[in-house]
Specification:
Blueprint (H helix, E strand, L loop, with lengths): L1 H24 E9 L7 E10 L5 E8 L2 E12 L2 E7 L2 E3 L4 E4 L5 E7 L8 E8 L2 E10 L5 H6 L3
Parallel strand pairs: 1-10
Antiparallel strand pairs: 1-2, 2-7, 2-8, 3-6, 3-9, 4-5, 4-8, 9-10
Amino acid sequence: MKNVIFIGLTLASLSYAKEKKIAEKLSFQDARIFVPSKGSVATAGYAVVKNNTEKEVSLIISKAEPFKAVETHMTVEKEGRMAMEKVDKFSVPAKGSLELKQGGNHIMLFEPSREVKADEEIKVEFLIDDQKLEVPFKTIPRVSSPKKEEAHHH
C-alpha cells in the first residue's frame, strides 16, 4: 500500500513539475473570457501568449469547464467579408507572442453546463507540444459594442 501511495505521489509531482516547466515556456497575459450573453450558447476568450523559448510552440485548446466544447478560431476575409475559420492549433513563434483578440485569433467556448458569471476563474486546458497546461482565465462582463460581438458568434 505504501508503494502505491509513493508511486501516486511521485507521478503527481512529476506531472506538476512538467506543467511548471511548460508554464516557464509560455506565459499568458490578460487571459479573459466574456460572460455569455443571455440566450447565447457561445462566447470567446482572449489573451496574449508569450513564448519564452528558442523554438516555435504549438498551442491546442483541449477543454474549459463548464463549457461542453472549445475551439481555436482565426478571422479571415472571404469575398470582402470577415469570417471565422476553425483551426486545429495556433503557433507561437520562438521568442515571440500570439495575441488572441476580437477580430483576430481567439478561442471559442460553447454550451456552458451552468450559468457563467463575471469575476469567475475558468481553468482552460491547452496542449503545448502535446503536454497539458491549465491556464486561469477571468470571466468579464460584456460591455463594449454588443453589436460587433454578437456578429462574432456562429
